[in-house]
Backbone:
């Protein structure tokens, strides 16, 4: 996997909007984030500029607005983040992570059932 830019939690919120609605202009990004955050328009514009500088976004000028598109895929970023978390806190051991969550009752019965279904489905695919 290529090196992905370091994205803050706030910048990640901006990226989620862009991944969902790409291509999207500055006004649309701002309107979306004003509904879900307490940020001002200037803060959002600053984060957009930072994401461009970090190589996470590209933009084109369309009249008086900028239209943004992601340069990284959401799936790649999420895989990178989850692997970083797993390596940093659990030495890359998924079993340790799950054991920690189970022992500390951080996973509900419903989530355990969903995990069983996912594992069964994956197991069936591997047998095919």
Residues:
């Amino acid at each position: 996997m290529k090196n992905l830019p370091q994205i803050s939690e706030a910048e990640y919120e901006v990226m989620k909007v862009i991944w969902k609605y790409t291509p999207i202009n500055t006004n649309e990004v701002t309107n979306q984030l004003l509904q879900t955050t307490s940020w001002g328009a200037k803060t959002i514009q600053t984060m957009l500029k930072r994401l461009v500088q970090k190589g996470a976004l590209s933009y084109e000028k369309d009249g008086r607005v900028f239209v943004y598109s992601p340069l990284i895929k959401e799936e790649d970023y999420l895989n990178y983040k989850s692997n970083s978390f797993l390596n940093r806190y659990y030495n890359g051991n998924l079993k340790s992570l799950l054991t920690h969550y189970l022992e500390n009752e951080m996973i509900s019965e419903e989530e355990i059932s969903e995990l069983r279904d996912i594992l069964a489905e994956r197991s069936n695919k591997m047998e095919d």
In short: The chain is about 65% helix and 10% strand.
